């Protein structure tokens, strides 16, 4: 799309919320690292141009302007919010989930603040739940009691000779491991926060018996160096409530060397994880946006759920590796080793108990 004027879509005033930047000095990431993290995420049209207003909505639109900052060389989770230009107004479209739209609005507002640009005109709309449900409903697989492995690192987890079948924003392949059919499911876009919960609900409806989520979490224990250990568990704190689920791994994963376990905390945005937040949750083990909603959805739908994640960063102590330098070669190499461990743990779990 060119930078030409169109009539900008408008929303009812009551549905439009103002996005305020976070207090940078209070965040668990150092300011220079935080800014680098934001620069990786913010659409190039925002970094390269000034706008009278920036409005974030829920929408999956690959016909809009694609950010030049999207990751390359990845099979999955490389798509980022797109943008439409309407004269001096910019409309940013993030995959429709309440957490993701809010998270991206915080990213934009904080980036503009840190780069000394006006932030007063950054607004967002929480997507209608029906829109979010419809987006999740685009997922269509023929499942019959399969184990579905969803998330990150699938290029290493799935059989190297397998063929990916593409759907609307996702791809999958199926393999038999120790007598059990396993479906590897990856999304081209982010399944941030509540979106991930809807994915589990959809998978259960389609016939999945178990879902395993592979991804990344932040550690709340200062002694855990990033990219050296794995995380698992069956409990998350979601909006102050304790959520538990039937764990696909049982005690198997936590008994493996280099696997840390504990109570997880669900946070809708990395930007909200400041030092006060850390003090409140210091007795817990990990944080990410998806595990809680996914576990809650599995509990509601009566299927088993498990997660086995790389501990990618540490909120309680500054280490050289964090969320601002995930694309560095040494980080990628360390995580590749950990993904292989995840692959081995899942295979051994299926060898012990295929069902």
TrEMBL record:
One of its GO terms (molecular function) is catalytic activity. SUPFAM superfamilies: Purine and uridine phosphorylases. One of its GO terms (biological process) is nucleoside metabolic process. This is Uncharacterized protein. It comes from Amycolatopsis saalfeldensis.
């Amino acid at each position: 799309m060119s930078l030409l004027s169109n009539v900008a879509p408008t929303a009812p005033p009551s549905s439009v919320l103002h996005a305020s930047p976070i207090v940078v000095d209070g965040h668990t990431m150092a300011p220079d690292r935080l800014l680098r993290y934001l620069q990786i995420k913010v659409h190039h049209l925002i970094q390269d141009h000034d706008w009278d207003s920036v409005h974030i909505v829920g929408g999956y639109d690959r016909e809009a302007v694609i950010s030049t900052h999207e990751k390359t060389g990845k099979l999955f989770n490389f798509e980022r919010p797109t943008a439409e230009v309407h004269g001096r107004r910019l409309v940013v479209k993030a995959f429709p989930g309440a957490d993701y739209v809010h998270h991206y609005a915080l990213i934009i507002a904080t980036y503009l603040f840190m780069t000394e640009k006006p932030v007063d005109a950054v607004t967002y709309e929480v997507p209608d739940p029906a829109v979010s449900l419809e987006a999740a409903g685009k997922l269509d697989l023929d499942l019959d009691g399969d184990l579905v492995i969803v998330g990150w690192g699938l290029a290493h987890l799935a059989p190297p000779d397998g063929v990916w079948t593409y759907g609307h924003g996702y791809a999958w392949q199926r393999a038999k491991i120790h007598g059990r059919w396993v479906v590897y499911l990856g999304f081209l876009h982010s399944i941030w926060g509540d979106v991930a919960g809807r994915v589990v609900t959809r998978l259960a409806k389609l016939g999945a018996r178990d879902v395993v989520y592979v991804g990344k979490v932040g550690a709340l224990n200062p002694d855990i160096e990033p990219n050296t250990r794995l995380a698992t568990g069956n409990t998350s704190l979601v909006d102050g409530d304790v959520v538990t689920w039937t764990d696909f791994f049982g005690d198997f994963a936590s008994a493996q060397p280099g696997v840390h376990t504990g109570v997880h905390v669900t946070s809708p945005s990395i930007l909200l994880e400041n030092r006060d937040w850390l003090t409140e949750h210091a007795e817990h083990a990990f944080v990410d946006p998806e595990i809680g909603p996914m576990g809650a959805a599995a509990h509601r739908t009566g299927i088993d759920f498990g997660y086995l994640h790389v501990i990618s960063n540490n909120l309680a102590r500054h280490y050289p590796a964090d969320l601002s330098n995930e694309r560095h070669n040494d980080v990628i190499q360390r995580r590749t080793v950990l993904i292989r461990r995840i692959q081995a743990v899942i295979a051994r779990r299926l060898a012990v108990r295929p069902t």
